[in-house]
Design a protein that fits this description.
about 260 residues; alpha/beta; Rossmann fold; 4-stranded antiparallel sheet; about 25% helix; methyltransferase; SAM-dependent_MTases_sf; Methyltransf_25; methyltransferase activity; Methyltransferase
Length: about 260
């Protein structure tokens, strides 16, 4: 379904199926992601992205609370962001002002911001928040729309762990710890998964339950989306350190490039 963008009669915007993050979720996000947000944990990500951005500008799709965008900006890379959730963007605003890191509220599949970028990036499995193949294709097209010739689009995405599903099983755990139980359930026919979370809420034995829907995609499917958008695969590795992508890789960092001519 499409809607016309108010005040821009010549432009149309896709109404995406991404689930909107609430203020409650946004306010606790940084605390729950503290381990993945430490300087040591982020250094390989920042080095990888800064190297691709070079002397140009970077645009982060689904920038969230700025877990990556804010320290990348502090590293000297001019960063702009697109974010669907206003509460998530409000948390980012506590860290960086609009003059330092501009953020546009909108969906990553169609929202357009001014200027060209040498790097567009989308981390932490977030393309899976787009729940249809059409929307994911539009996301690639939107990245290509923002890239200068020779610019690159980067996605970090998990490889679907379907080989861990024996016949008749629909769930795969991804985290079992004292404070958190996480597992995914799969609808193979629809290429969908639901992530379920049981998180200890305080020290009184209570647990908070949450879930989110995602559309998983294979690396080869993403390559076809990139080709539709006019981008070409340049590199695929298993992590931000650049480890080779193999059959055993649990995730991939993929880089597609926009042709120079």
């Amino acid at each position: 379904m499409r809607r016309q963008v108010p005040g821009r009669p010549a432009q149309w915007s896709l109404v995406t199926s991404s689930e909107l993050w609430s203020r409650e979720t946004a306010d606790r996000y940084d605390g729950e992601e503290a381990e993945n947000s430490s300087p040591a944990a982020l250094e390989p990500t920042l080095a990888f992205l800064a190297g691709l951005a070079g002397e140009g500008r970077a645009l982060e799709f689904a920038i969230g609370t700025g877990r990556v965008g804010v320290p990348l900006r502090a590293r000297g890379v001019p960063v702009a962001g697109i974010e669907l959730s206003e509460p998530m963007a409000a948390v980012l605003r506590r860290k960086a002002g609009a003059d330092t890191l501009p953020v546009t509220i909108g969906d990553m599949a169609t929202t357009v911001v001014p200027g060209e970028f040498t790097l567009v990036y989308l981390v932490y499995n977030t393309i899976s928040n787009l729940l249809t193949q059409d929307e994911q294709v539009e996301c690639f097209r939107n990245a290509a729309r923002h890239l200068a010739p020779g610019g690159r689009f980067v996605i970090e995405l998990a490889v679907p762990p379907l080989r861990f599903l024996p016949p008749g099983q629909v769930a795969v755990p991804f985290d079992v710890s004292d404070r958190h139980l996480g597992f995914d359930t799969f609808d193979l026919a629809e290429q969908m998964l639901v992530s379920h979370h049981f998180t200890r809420d305080g020290d009184d034995g209570r647990y908070r339950r949450g879930s989110s829907r995602h559309r998983y995609a294979w690396p080869a499917e993403l390559d076809l989306m990139a080709r539709i958008a006019g981008l070409k695969l340049e590199r695929r590795v298993a992590d931000w350190h650049g480890a080779p992508f193999t059959d055993d890789a649990e995730q991939h960092i993929s880089v597609w490039r926009k042709p120079v001519t």
